[in-house]
Amino acid sequence: MTPDFNPTGETESQQTASPYKRVRARGVMDGLNGKFSNEDLSNIEMPSHWAVPWSDLMMVMMVMFAVMLATHLAERDVSELFKKDTNPQPKEHVQPPPPKTSLTQPQPQTDLHSDQTTPTQPKVDNTKEQSENFEAKPAALAKTEQGAIPIQDILRLSKHLVTEANLEDIDVVLTDNQSVKVSVRGNLLFDLGKADLKPEAISFLQNLSTIIAANNYQIEVAGHTDNFPVSNPAYPTNWELSSARAARVARYLIQFGKLEPGRFTVIGHSFYQPTVAMDSLANKAKNRRVEIIITRLEYKP
């Protein structure tokens, strides 16, 4: 039996193969025989492989990370450059010379509770600082040069002293001749018919002496009584009683504050200068008073 005509030379098994294999085998044979054409190439189905797109993705990611790294390094270099420009090295601080001020001659500071004196540093004539210092520590106000504290500050400090002491029987006013008058009324200083200081008034007089010590003005201490008749060996009349009370207050201020006695003038008015009519016991108590007047006249020994 004559075999069938087989122009391609394929075997039976090759002929029964899949069309894809047949086309591929035919293309190979045609290529070997020089019969390969574009029409035949377009009919060939080339298989796709996962490694090709994966390699492209990896290449894109590597380029992206390289760009990100270069951008980050460039930003860090620029930020460090600006940091160096905005934060220069600190320069050595040069202390400016102290301003020239007019200094007063140092005076010894007197301790009000002892007889010892300690030298003080030269200080600038600054009345405002002296006033604030007194408000913080009234008993620490030291003696200063004559007329150092203005009369308005003396008035304010005296009122502040009365407010802190919470005393109702004390008036502090500015008189017509610009003097500060501190009037202590009633039985705050003395009992009836006596000239001995009461313990309630000691603290107030001690603090008041610090204000007087801060200036060099002349001081007047005037005693006033009511119209009750007085008749005893110590005080035959109200003249002696009013004068004794004024002298007792002045002497305590001088001793405690170590003040110059020549600055003080003691006056006794008896009951002849009342502030209110003596028609009741309350008014009589208001007229019993001791007035401490800080004048505007400087003391010149």
Detailed description of the structure:
The protein has helices spanning 12-15, 19-32, 38-42, 51-86, 127-136, 151-165, 199-213, 238-257, 281-287; strands spanning 108-110, 117-119, 170-174, 180-185, 217-224, 264-268, 289-298. The longest helix has 36 residues, at 51-86. The protein is rod-shaped and about 140 Å long. It is 42% helix and 13% strand. It is built from 9 helices and 7 strands; from the N terminus they run H-H-H-H-E-E-H-H-E-E-H-E-H-E-H-E. Among the domains are: 12-42, no CATH class; 125-298, 60s Ribosomal Protein L30, Chain: A (2-Layer Sandwich), CATH 3.30.1330.60. With 301 residues, it is of the alpha+beta class.
Number of strands: 7
Rounded to the nearest angstrom, the radius of gyration is: 56 Å
Sheet/helix structural class: alpha+beta
β-sheet strand percentage: 5-15%
CATH topology of one domain: 60s Ribosomal Protein L30, Chain: A
- Please give the share of residues in helix: 40-55%
| Second rung of CATH, namely the architecture of one domain | 2-Layer Sandwich
Q: How many H/I helical runs?
A: 9
Looking across the biggest beta sheet, what order are the strands in?
3-4-7-5-6
CATH superfamily of one domain: OmpA-like domain
**Which blocks of ≥5 consecutive residues have pLDDT under 50?**
100-140, 142-146
User: SSE order in H/E notation?
Assistant: HHHHEEHHEEHEHEHE
CATH class type of one domain: Alpha Beta
The main pleated sheet reads as: 5 strands, mixed
How far apart, in Å, are the first and last alpha carbons? 169 Å
Mean pLDDT across every amino acid position: 75
